[in-house]
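step: validate -> pass
step: tokenize input -> pass
step: predict -> running
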Amino acid sequence: MAALTQPAEFTLPDRHASNRNGALRWILTHVARSWGLGVVLFIGALGNAALAAFVPVYTGDAFDAIIQSPPLVNLLLPISLALIISQVIRSVLQFGRNYAAEIIGQRLERDIRDELYVSLLGKSMTFHNLQPIGDTMARATNDVREINLMLNPGINLVIGSANFLIMPILFAPRYHPALTLAPVVFFIGYILLLWQYLHELSPITTNIRAAFGRLNTRLAEALDGIETVKGAAREADEIGQFRTNARHLRDAFVRQGDVEARFLPLLLMLIVQAAGLFHSFLLYQDGLIGLGDVVAYFGLLQLFGFPTFVSLFSYSQVSSGMASARRILELINRETEFDQNPGGYAAPMKGEIEFKGVTFTYGGDADPVVRAVSFKVKPGQTVALVGQTGSGKTTLVKLVNRTYEATSGQVLVDGVDVRDWNLETLRQNISIIEQDVFLFSRTVAQNIAFGKPDASQETIETFAEAAQADEFIRDFKDQYETVVGERGVTLSGGQRQRLALARAFLTDPRILVLDDSTSAIDSATEDKIQRAIFAASKGRTTLIITHRLSQIRWADLIVVMRQGRVAAVGTHDELLASSEAYRRIFNDAI
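step: predict -> pass
step: emit ->
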């Protein structure tokens, strides 16, 4: 099946093609890659059911041999040998079926987890800003696992039990054609009742998966904001909200249990078995079948027990797995406006930036964050973006590397629309250092070399020195091999920002963006950092979002932002003379 073309910000090579036109087709696309194991599963299931039917058949034959006068004891040995051989073969087939199902299930989980992860990496920041992390994690972990369990034991038992349903129909005419009636009635009734059961169960399992996602979302938010929760002494309220979400999840499971408790095929099976036994006795009284035939026929009706009892579990597992598949596929198929554009412009970057009537909104009916912005930055220039909080400065610079996509207008780099650039080339030449620095739970050296993982230790240390980070790194016990806690919590704000500067310097970008990146640095270190930034900005275009006069003054160009618009553009002296908005900002900073 051909994969649907989904626009993506970033893709990885060697992705498995999958049909995303519905959860069932999507699952079948993945399962089809293990078609050989699927054949083993079906053969094993069919053979297991057929050989299971041999037990009541041979039992009936043995019963007839014993009740003869005199008993035909000589027939018992071959019957016993036939039973032993058939059940040994059955066990081998059953092992093959279970083994194949387990392998297919594990492969399915692996491939879907890989596809989802690749898809998440390819989503735009707009997607990630709107999608709760806790819900995403629930889908990427628990929902993916549910799909594995849907296949094994779910589908495995469904296929195995389905073959048990047809065996009494196939073997009953061996004794009398009329005895086919009870198995056929059960088969038809079972299918109808099962359809009703799944129809009632489907919305409940969907609700369970959604409730688990909400529970996980709240948990992730509370843990991520644990400092805020403790600072405001809101632990009791968070516990109460968590209990509410947990109760909703519990109630959903109770509703599922209520539906399972009213599983009507169990009642149907008992009625059919009793009716079938009564029918066989009538035929026996009429001399149409023997007593051993009655025993064998009732044994065949007992085969309905396996599909009936396992259906209570297996079909609910399938329903839950399909609900999980729909949730995962919905996440994968969520539209993103970005495209990697692998065949796009990829020439060496000079660093010229131009905004032409650029407007950006986060979507929906929200007001634009950036409105009709136009200005030009020459290669190698240092530009300071100033303005009140919320004036759109950070959003504006993130349009350059397409973290966000301009709603209207054009962002040009070297005279080429950023949409026409090869996305990987564009971003490899742009480094953004934000105020809220993100560090991975890895060593200091690995964090610095994140953008260039093949960098030598000497190179890493050189750029750490340039960012004024080497001194405090040397104070650590393990120095550059020190493992940084998640999000860099083991470091101070100034230390995190200096590591981020080293990481940016190491990639040697043509465009450097500093988003208030020295805000957490003390005044004693600031002068050193300023010199490092000044040295690093030579020969490359630098955009600085700052409120510090020391950085504003040495900028080649200053852009004053106000309510998403450009209020003024010029040098420090020009703006002091011509811009009231800039004079207010400058006076507030003094």
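step: describe -> The CA atoms of residues 476 and 482 lie 7 Å apart.
step: cleanup -> pass
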